[in-house]
Amino acid sequence: MWDVNQSAVTEFILLGFAPNARTNPLLFTFFLVFYLLILVSNSLLVSLIHQDSRLHTPMYFFISVLSMLDVCYTTTTVPQMLVHLLSKKRAISFARCAAQMYIFLLFGVTESWLFSIMSVDRYMAICQPLRYKSIMSHWVCLALVGICVAYGVVGGLCYTFFAMRLPYCGPNEIDHYFCEVPAVLKLACADTSLNDLVDFITGFNVIVVPLSLVILVYANIFVAVMKIRSAQGWIKAFSTCASHITVVTMFAIPCIIMYMSPGSDSLSNSGKKMALFYNIATAFLNPVIYSLRNKDVKKAFLKLMGWGRAPE
Asked: Of 97, 158, 262, 292, which is most buried with the most CB atoms under 10 A?
């Protein structure tokens, strides 16, 4: 039984990774380099897509949105983590914690649904090539992104509202490097069974449903590709899909484990490590996968740098 007379928590302490005077500078350098690479690579990709008219297609439009989400997604958490690695004070106010939680979830849920929209785009391009441009018009693409954002707004509100409405009057040390729902809920001095149910239902709608849609769409793409007689067509189609599936898997599986394991105490130590996958790793890999393996993006980059001219 919790003592109701305890004072309410006004700030939290983010424990982050194990504090060590020797390893902290190394971790700081490691994450700083990764963060700068994420900023530069994603910003460069957005710039290339914006400037090169050959990249003004639905696929690259969605990739540019993904890159912008990745920049926002990581900026919500990484700069704070870097400061805390070099600082003895790792406090964050209750209000800032709630704001960080919501903004992180807003971008995360939006990205989750964007992955499913990108798979639908690939299906239309491969299975309906003659109707692709007419169906995936600019306004349709904008509307689809708007739907993703709407899911992000609602999903983020559901997670954050039910988490931060609970009383926090006991320990205030969060075993994480940012205010993430599962880590914060462990400090609540009240029954969290309702939160476990809400988180499971919300997670099903914002993680499992988009992932299932991706699997269903790519299953249909696989069936369609098997009908292609050209070996080159097979390779091109599978190459396009494999990169997307890799990123989606790295993003979705850790999210499912984190947000759909109600009351799991076994994740307390591994949770922040898994968060690195969908918070940092995918943001780093997205521009690499979608640009280095893409000759159109390479040509646009060479043209921008003045090292070559794109064919007319």
From this structure: 97
- Of 138, 296, 115, which Cα lies nearest the Cα of 213? 115
271: which 2 tokens?
A: 């949770």
pLDDT tens readout for residues 242-264: 777 878 888 888 888 888 775 55
CA dist., res. 288 & res. 170, Å (int) = 44
Tens digit of pLDDT for each residue in 71-110? Answer: 998 999 999 999 988 887 889 999 999 999 999 999 999 9
Length of the chain: 312
Q: Burial-class residue 55 by CB neighbours within 10 Å (0-12, 13-18, 19+).
A: buried
SS3 labels along 178-225 = CCCHHHHHCCCCCCCHHHHHHHHHHHHHHHHHHHHHHHHHHHHHHHHH
pLDDT at 266 over 50: no
Q: What is the largest CA-CA distance in the chain?
A: 74
